[in-house]
TrEMBL record:
It holds the Pfam family SBP_bac_1. PANTHER family: ARABINOSE-BINDING PROTEIN-RELATED, POLYGALACTURONAN_RHAMNOGALACTURONAN-BINDING PROTEIN YTCQ. The gene is msmE. The keyword Membrane applies. This is ABC transporter substrate-binding protein.
Length: 436
């Protein structure tokens, strides 16, 4: 347990380190009030495509809890917005956040309350909660829970089953099968993949699937233990990610013409309209594809990274985590709202609406046919986490990946990534020594 002074000090260091500007986001509030016996909670909600779902959830909650009013604040740039609120010392009462490296930094800075005593903890799949815990906690251990998993996603390959059937292509189960399928489509005048490199982050799904499957066990633990001496260490990106990045470059050689100028929105619309056989995106893209074409034929399969079909896994992350501000003035009311959000009925309804996987034990499998190819891997626990969450946010990973897939120069990417990691490790060591 940390004293209030320790918590304030750690949060202050985070703000100084992570916030380079004090932009004010229109519409943001960071306070909660009580008037006429009604407590108002500020609910920070980061997914624009889920505003409608949460609006209905809030309406149902308020009907059952007339003494609580919940104000949903949905913002276009949540990472900047939450840091703006930190500068203003206005952490929202309840928050949804993607369980990513950014969340981990905030958790370690003690921005979020400990939810380890929440009843919902007993209902969460431990393997899913472990993904959140691995990102970091306020106590830097296993005692605190700074976010409860509300929705999980899975990253695989989305495909058009009608195009596959028309070209007599079976779902690939090995790397050789995948490349053969891409060749078949290209020879038939069909785009094998629709790629969207105007948005650099869209090179990330292939990186986490290929790299996460092929990297040695304990890679990041060993890399961190080496400090800044990457070149002289036993592991490095150059030594251990060569095969994975060569395969990513090979996949992107099958993209459509002009892929460097297309963005994610264009990719969703193009795939929805049947402009490619496959799409290198995760389950989170399915609602956006259906928004362009509700009748789009969509199916999924896990990356066949090797020629061992039994080695296939799905990359999974917590798409939405539920947190509570550590300094909220209304913890009892905030926990009541969190308890409602984490109820099996609410989690399941959201899962079906947003094409996600329920992180709760004994949850019914998502019956969305688009997820049928990934659901067994999630249900059976054949999952790995997003390895990009292990890479410090100060390293411009997605921009480096963007350059790699456009130029095809994997060795340069890996050398640059080693160099960037070494610089961060050296800065971290210097900062640590300065505090001793």
């Amino acid at each position: 347990m940390h004293s209030p002074t320790t918590t304030r000090t750690r949060r202050g260091r985070l703000v100084a380190a992570l916030v380079g500007t004090t932009l004010v986001t229109a519409g943001l509030t960071g306070c909660s009030t009580a008037q006429d016996g009604v407590t108002t909670l500020d609910f920070f909600q980061f997914k624009p495509e889920a505003v409608g779902d949460f609006t209905q959830i809030i309406a149902d909650f308020e009907a059952e809890n007339p003494d609580i009013r919940v104000v949903q604040n949905a913002v276009p740039d949540p990472d900047t917005a939450i840091r703006t609120l930190l500068v203003k010392d206005k952490v929202p009462d309840v928050l949804t956040l993607n369980a990513s490296g950014n969340f981990g930094e905030l958790a370690r800075a003690c921005v979020f309350a400990d939810l380890s005593d929440e009843p919902a903890n007993d209902d969460v799949n431990p393997a899913v909660q472990d993904i959140v815990q691995a990102l970091g906690t306020c106590d830097q251990g296993d005692d605190e829970v700074n976010a409860l998993p509300f929705a999980s996603n899975a990253s695989g390959i989305i495909y058009n089953p009608e195009i596959f059937a028309a070209n007599d292509v079976e779902v690939p189960t090995t790397w050789t099968d995948l490349i053969a399928a891409a060749d078949t489509f290209r020879d038939a005048g069909v785009n094998p993949f629709y790629c969207t490199m105007k948005d650099a982050w869209t090179a990330g799904p292939a990186f986490v699937n290929l790299g996460g499957t092929l990297m040695p066990d304990g890679f990041f633990d060993d890399l961190r233990a080496e400090g800044s001496d990457i070149e002289g260490g036993a592991v490095s990106f150059s030594k251990d990610f060569g095969e994975a990045m060569d395969k990513e470059v090979e996949l992107f050689s099958y993209c459509q013409d002009g892929f460097a100028s297309r963005d994610y929105n264009a990719g969703n619309a193009a795939f929805a309209n049947g402009e490619s056989a496959m799409y290198l995106q995760g389950s989170y893209a399915i609602p956006a594809i259906r928004a362009s074409n509700p009748d789009a034929p969509i199916a999924t399969f896990p990356y066949p990274v090797t020629d061992d079909a039994d080695a296939r896994v799905a990359v999974s992350g917590v798409d939405v985590g539920i947190s509570m501000g550590r300094t909220t003035e209304h913890p009892a009311e905030a926990k009541r709202f969190i308890d409602y959000l984490m109820s099996p009925e609410v989690v399941q309804a959201y899962s079906e609406s947003q094409s996600t996987f329920s992180p709760l034990l004994d949850a019914a499998p998502n019956t969305d046919p688009a997820l049928a190819g990934l659901e067994p891997y999630f249900s059976d626990g054949r999952i790995i986490g997003f390895i990009d969450h292990q890479i410090p946010a100060s390293i411009p990973l997605v921009n480096m990946l963007q350059t790699m897939v456009i130029t095809g120069d994997a060795p340069a990417f890996l050398a640059d990534l080693d160099d960037e990691w070494s610089k961060v490790a050296a800065r971290t060591a210097t900062q640590r020594e300065g505090k001793e």
